[in-house]
Model the fold of this input.
Amino acid sequence: MPAIFDVKIASATCQWSVKTGESGNPIDCLRAVVAGTATGPVGARLELPILVWSDDKVDCGAWTHYAGALVTVGNTCRRIAGQPETTTWTVDTGGDDCPLKYGFKNSRTYTVKIYANNDINAKKQDAKNYLCQ
Done:
């Protein structure tokens, strides 16, 4: 029976907010959160690109998190022996940090890919367009 590889983005949200900076001036910030599921055999590698900047918080669920990625810039979740075939994952810019909205378009796209071990060609991918509001 062939190995099953799947990855799905369940949700993608992005919100602008205004915080008060150390100098007392308002700062436009954004918070982006993308979540989904991944399925693969032992050795499967899920590549999660950076949402806004490299301080994204990544939760690989039941799989193991590795900072950095082989193909894209971001993070990797890998299934190792003893972990379930399917996991949930989340990438979040975080609530405490303040990625500045300057230079970011309201319309964004997030793409995730799942690979077999260290292959460079993805077995499956999913993309979602969303708006920062």
In short: The beta strands are 6-20, 26-39, 44-49, 57-59, 64-67, 74-78, 86-92, 107-116, 124-131.
